[in-house]
């Protein structure tokens, strides 16, 4: 579908459905980016559903621990744990997966909420543009490393595990230029310092959110129908959050005024994360907006988008397989050829 600015703006004034609810007794939930904003509010909702454990996956020890204490104080839930993970550092993601392999136990729900929007090119220690690595490369890395545990959990307990990747309606305005599609490596080209000019960085976040949708659709196409695993993307809409904290003045001031007029509250936005985790039934590989399945952008559902989806998947597997060979093992053992 094509999303006009006017249609999007009208949607910001819709009354959102109440938060989805479920009995999570005995289950383990991981929320990435849980110390603030949407992730923190989602944890508050989950804590009222009686899960055995909630793991707050955060990059800051201090902020993460403060969030754990705040959850206890505000909800009375005592089984929230802090685990450290920094998606801007592949070694940190691998360490998180290592810890889960050793003593993580079951894993029923993974909410991948962490994301950044950087106004200028900055490289991570791994050599990637920061927002591309955090939003579009390390997010799939974490999902693929935890996927075996999630499938085993579902098989052991007769349930279905769920992966929820937070995307954005901004993917509608995040197409991949034809000259990038003409290159051998889409992600490598997009993440290069040559490509990430100041003008492109102003809308680069949109591209990273498009990559989230391509990844989840590609993953879903490779999950056999008999495998008890669901993966969807959710759009929280424009919400009050810290995502725009790095926008320079005066754009930051304009953004805050616009946010004040049109944005959903942080709690309202978090309802979409919860819906993806407990309220989406048998939906697989879908793009969920305001608790309803919607078509993603015309690019995604078109022939060019399908080709890009398969190419990005192949490139991701190649990149991530070099980061951690367990990715290749997971793809071979748990996934099938594209349907």
From TrEMBL:
Which domain of life does the protein's organism represent?
Eukaryota
Keywords from the UniProt entry: Oxidoreductase
A Pfam family of the record is: adh_short
The record, for InterPro entries, names:
NAD(P)-bd_dom_sf, SDR_fam
Q: Name one GO molecular function term.
A: oxidoreductase activity
Which Gene3D superfamilies does the record match to this protein? Answer: NAD(P)-binding Rossmann-like Domain
Q: In its UniProt entry, what is this protein called?
A: NAD(P)-binding protein
Organism expressing this protein natively: Mycena sanguinolenta
